[in-house]
Amino acid sequence: MKNLIKYIVIISVFAGIVSCDTILEPIDENRLDYDFVSSDPASAEGILLNGYSRLVDQFTFIEAATDDAVSNQNSDNFKRMATELNAQFNPASRWNNFESVLWVNKFLEIINAGEIVWSPNEEINEMFYMRMEGEALALRGLHHFYALQAHAGFGTSGQLLGVPYFTEFIESDGNFNTPRLSFEATVQAIMADFDAALALLPTDYSDDPGAVDPIYQQYDFNNYQVVNGSFYNLRISGRIVKALKARLALFAASPSFLNDQSYYSMAASFASELLNTIGGVSGLAANGLDYYKAYDEDNDAEMIWRGNIQGSPSAGIERRMFPPSVNGSGEINPTQNFVDAFPMQSGFPATAANGYDPQDPYADRDPRLAEFVVLNGSSFGGGNINTGVGGGIDRLDSIPEFSTKTGYYLKKTLHPGVRLNDDGTAVGQRHYDVYFRYTELFLIFAEAANEVGGPDQQINGMSARDVIAAIRERAGLDQPDNYLASITSKEAMRNLIRNERRIELSFEGHRFWDLRRWGLSLNEPAAGYFFNGSDYISIPSVEDRDYPSLYMPIPNDEVLKFPEIEQNAGW
User: Which fold has domain 34-64+88-279+553-561?
Assistant: First the structure.
């Protein structure tokens, strides 16, 4: 955290805010001192924009540290983490998110001085102050949440602890020796920042006069549009903050942390109120299952928050993940554990009693399986992929660090229109980062509502059963859904919701964190499945996992430097 530079190099500005006559000649080797930054609108906003760094998107592939996938790259940090996690080596650490916190605290310090003039128009100037303060507070809460998610745990004292909460900028030579708050105090501090942000942010950035929130209705709409119009789409908004509150409440309520009904009630209430703005269960987006097939900026019904769509086509992710016969590196390999999570087409679990045939393992299965995983015999990436005998370089363990280790390759999140040519060129496609999808919000509601009152507990016009029914119908499972109809207890619905979450949010960075908050084992061996030319054979353990604890360590160097920071037990 002490690496935050004293002089800020402005790397990004919004041209629409500042007129040409504010552009200055370079000064002091292009470094801008505090007096300049605190009075120049573009420079100050450049500091705020640094708060948008370190957002967590769907391309982390932390699944390689879980029972859902392995990496074929021996140097992959998440592969190593599954057996080597310690206080000196933790690739999932988010302690450096505090640097983003300090950026937004610096911005808040600047605007609280009140010296910046965003516009000579008084209304516009006032609204810029409101909105940007709201952004900063929301981002501060979010980065503390990221740190909490990764580092909350029982300290050496036996108390359930959160993380330090920084509300002021600290100079590089300042005092970072700040103790961790209790877990619940950290949650409450994040909620307070989110609530303060909601009092300042528009629900949506819009050019529609009918979409103006009450706090902004006193202003001339033309002025409002300058500050909160659609130009600012994709920056953090009130809608996004409401979704983040639901995510935080569910995390806090989970068995590994507070295991608290009041937080489940909060999560269900926050989620349902926001979902009702899109029509409740009827608003479940049709493209929520396969948004990644297009990354379509003109069809955002599934997106609560995403990044900008790329300006130019690319193929970087696909080059890492496509099977080797279509010129990829086959890096992330889904496991048999993950494949087993998909039910039969009937919606019943994949067991012999329900028609599952281990020698015809992909017949009559949930359609999502073939959408998310490259199965033996699949067509993908412009070729036919065989992972068993006769599969050539796609065959299991054929080429180290290229061929699959489990019998499967990844489809989920990859753009199917990408082609990797034999000469090294590629037909790329445009992608965007995803930070929050409506499907996640529906699943947050279902989990929380079930914990509050069981499968049929109605909260703001919805129940867990309603949501899971809509998700499974969208997936293409047989209707009526007789398996769902057979679920009557909270415990059975809990297991189904967790399985649906595993499938629907797969390979978007959720599984590792979900296993931890549910208190489930991280040490399930990663299994594979191989066609030997005549039969499929099981590989019970492709990779073992050896996590000492569900609770992750604080970085050792932080604990050594700052004795007020209590380490989690066992590290």
Answer: 1.25.40
